[in-house]
């Protein structure tokens, strides 16, 4: 049990609302289909609501993706600020943000046409060497 009286919840140090220690999965571990929220509960009084509730597109994002979205919003949509925060080239920052939009269902999954501003092979390999780019992202960019 935690300070909230619930085994899976903890409170912020400031005493604000309790938050879950774990994120709910978005896909079924048995068949892989999307899960729906069917029960909500109050950690304070034990009240429970049952039904089918609208999904949260932000809940399926990883901590790194949420951080990237927060930086983008705080910068009022400035991709150059996102580029600086991530420590990657502008095309890489744009590609990562496009991937995030696709994951949220806000962008077409169709690949963008090649642009003359795309990073070169040497730049991509340098970003992999510094850890700013994953090998999988590099393979996708080198296509």
From TrEMBL:
Region Disordered, annotated ranges: 1-20
Highest taxon listed in the record's lineage: Bacteria
Residues in DUF2089 domain copies: 28-59, 61-106
InterPro entries: DUF2089, DUF2089_Zn_ribbon
Protein name per its UniProtKB record: DUF2089 domain-containing protein
Organism whose genome encodes this protein: Microlunatus endophyticus
Higher taxonomy: Bacteria, Bacillati, Actinomycetota, Actinomycetes, Propionibacteriales
